[in-house]
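Can you give me the bound-state structure? Components:
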Amino acid sequence: MVIDNLVSAVSLPMGPLELPLCDTDEAGIWQLLESVCDPEIPVLSLREIGVLRAVKAAAGGWQLWITPTYNGCPAMSQMNTDLLSAMQQAGKQAEVFTCLAPAWSSDWITDTAKEKLRVYGIAPPHSNAVPNATSPIRLAGKMTRVQVACPQCESLDTTEISQFGSTACKAMYKCLACAEPFDYFKPY
Amino acid sequence: MNKLADYALHLADNALILGQRNAEWCGHGPILEEDLALANHSLDLIGQARLLYQWVAQLRGDGSTEDSLAYFRDQQAFLNFTLLELPHCTALAPSARAERDYAVTIVRNFFFSSYMLLVWDVLQNHEQPQLSAIAAKSLKEVRYHWQHAADWLIRFGDGTSESHDRAQAALDFLMPYTQEFWCDWPAAKHVLPDTATLNNKWTLMVGDVIKEAQLHLPDASGYVTQGVHGIHSEHMSYLLADMQSLARQHPGAQW
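Here's the bound-state model for the whole set.
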C-alpha cells in the first residue's frame, strides 16, 4: 500500500459516522459502500469501523477517503481494492485517497458496530479517554487495568493472555468463568 | 539533503532496523504469545518505517522510493541508532545461550520505546503536518510496545535469580548505547532542540520501572556509538544482507 496523501487538503471528520439515509447522490454512495467490510472482521463495514471517512463528488468521479488503522495493518490495500471493485460493479468511477490525519481511533467505531463485534465473539474496545497521553497505560498499575467482559458469557472474570493477538488491533484474552479464549479489540 | 529529511530518514531507519531485528523471533519466540507479540511489534515498526520512507522520498524528489531506501542503500547511508542493530545477546553471554537472549530483546525494546514515547509526543505537535500525522499515529502504537516491555522487565527482575541476573546483564550491556539518544547531531537538533529535558524525563521514566523490577540502572558511560552518522557496528552488514539480498537478487520483483 502506498499512502497517496499523508495529509489531505480536505479536512476529514472525527468520531463515529452514521449511515446517511437521505436521498442524495452522496448518501447513495455511502449506502452502496456499506457492503464493503473489513477483510479481517467481516461483520463490520469500513464506515462502521471508522476507516471510510468521506465520500466526495469530483470532476473525474467519486473520491473515497480512508484512513489506516495501525500503521502496519496489512489489510489496508485489500480495503482499497474492495472499495474500488464495489464502485466498479455499480458502474461508478472512483479513486481512493488515504490520509493519516486526524489519526484513526477505536473510539470511531460506532456503538451498533461495537455490539456487532461482541456478537461476533470479539470484545469491543473500551473508550480511549486519553488518546495521546504519553504514558497512561502501565503507570496506572497492572491491577487497575480495564476489565474486559467475555463476549460469550459476559463474565468480567477474564484475564489477558497476550497484549498482541491475531491481528495488530487485537489482544488475546481468556474467560475464567466459561474458559473460552477470545479476542479483545484494543483501544487505539 | 535538508535536515528535516535527514531526521525523517533516521526515524525510518530506526523503525526498520529494530523491526527487522525483532522479526527474527518470528517462529522462534520463547512462548507462542511472545512470538506473536514480537511479530506484531515488528509489523507496527515496519508500517511506521514505510510511511516515513514514503515521505523522505517525497522530500528528496530524486526518484527514491520506499523500496530503494530500504533495500538499495548500504550501511553507511543508514542513520539508525547502533543500539537497534545489535543481535539479541549480550557480549559476555556464555556461548550456550549466546544465540538469543530474551532479556536483551526486552531491555532494548524498553529503552527505545521509552525514548520514542517522549519523541513522538513532542513531534505530534510539529509544524510539519506529515511529521505530526505520523507521530500521532505512532504514539498510539509505541504505548503498547512500552507496556509490553515494561511488564516483562518487571517480571524478569522480580522473578527468579536467573531471570533477574540476565535482565541486569542486559541492562549493563545496553545502557552505554543509549548515550547516542542524546547526542546533538545537526538533524536531531533541528527537530528536537531540547534533548537535555528529554534525557531527564527518560531517566525518571526508565528508573521507576527498573526500581519496581528490583534492578539497578547502571551509569551510561564509555564510547558513544555513532550510528546516526552512518558509522555502525560489525553486526549491521549481516542484518542488511539478510534483509536486502532478496530485493537485490530480483530487482523490481513484485509479490
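A couple of observations. Chain B touches chain A through 43 residues (CB under 8 Å). The longest helix of chain B spans residues 32-60.
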